[in-house]
User: What shape does this take?
Amino acid sequence: MVASLGVRFPGLILINNFFGRTFSRFFSRGWKRLSLIFLALAVTAGALLVGVGVRAQQPVTISFLLRAVEADQMQGLAEQFMAENPDIRIEMVRGPNAADAVENLYTTSFLLGDSPYDILFSDVVWIPKFAAAGWLLDLSDRVSEADLADFLGADVTAGLYQDGLYRMPFRSDMGMLYYRTDLLDQVGLDPPETFSDLIAASEAIQAQTDVSWGFVWQGLQYEGIVTNFVELIAGYGGFWIDPDSLEVGLDQPAGIQAAEFMKTVIADSITPPGVTNYVEEDSLRQFENGNAAFLRNWPYVWAEANREGSPVAGKIALKPMVHDEGQQSAACLGGWGFGISATTPHPEEAWRVVEFFTSYGPMKQFVTEFAYVPSRRALFTDPDVLAEFPHFEQLLEVAETAIPRPPVGQYAQVSDILQRYLSASISDQMTPEAAMQAAAGETRRVLGVES
Ligand code: GLC
Assistant: This one.
């Protein structure tokens, strides 16, 4: 058949001859050749299967944004998680160190629709806005009330919006007053209780020792100045916004006194003029380098200022913030936790990350290493934690009574108003009274309440 076709189509004979020769040569080399082919096929198939396997094992990336200082500190836990969970890669994107600058970045990314972040690493004050916008998953089905009862009440409350839970607490925070025990000894004074004590002790130390400054705090126009102010206004017996009635207290006497205090300590050179540019880290550096007697800051300062090689290690103590005569100390409630983006393609993996960071062991590790305040109550009295930081027992009491910032959906706006006017007041562009009146009026307009 082939031959006859070959007669009509000579080319076919050539082809046929070629294959014929090849085949016979092939078979003449016998089984050896055949087995080589099988081997090649097996290797190819194997490689393909491995390829598919590798693709299937590519870890899912769970990403979130956070302040750069904090990313450094959380890296160790992230690596531990990834070692235990090779199917998940945690990507921590390093953001600015001002809390509300991070909030702005998250807001922009969520507004654009498809946020690149699977997790919202959230300040204690962000949830009403993010949850109301529908940007977060409700986590309430994933945790029981009994589980939540292990956390500080205020930290949990900060994650609630309507009937849902949108944030799992990781660490709490509360503003404290740090002081130099050696300097107070030198001038023969007790730790201050009131605003006037603080001013008097600062002046004595500035006059009698070579320490330049009395009191350092955070005065940049950002969220930090608001947290300082919350402590001052409460220490004068007032309030910023009543969350139930939405009454605004900024232009009442306590509000004006609080703004005046900030301005007076700068004007009287108790606080350096540069405070108008300070975030937490700047004020900490001044205190740590031995340039200031008192510092308002968060509890993590304890570990940092006492670290080996710190000029003030072993010479510091902390106490609740000072207050006006006849009033009480107030600590502003701070803290951070985890929400999950409503648009993440990987909610299960994101939850595993959240569950890890907020569970007892990892939280304990983080707290013991950096002196951050835990969100789980039992860690305040955990013997290992107390062995490292005996003052945590006192912090639990402060934590339970810390003053939250108002949980309103317009929080970012009302905070921005307060930041602007406090900043105008401490940089001498307005009197404290005029600044607080203007701030109160704008705040009422944003909240939709009558002036
Ligand atoms: C701390 C607090 C946070 C606060 C911020 C202000 O990080 O934990 O709640 O908003 O400081 O700077």
User: Anything to note?
Assistant: The CA atoms of residues 230 and 332 lie 6 Å apart. The pocket of alpha-D-glucopyranose is lined by residues 99, 123-124, 173, 223-224, 227, 280, 298, 334-336 (CB under 6 Å).
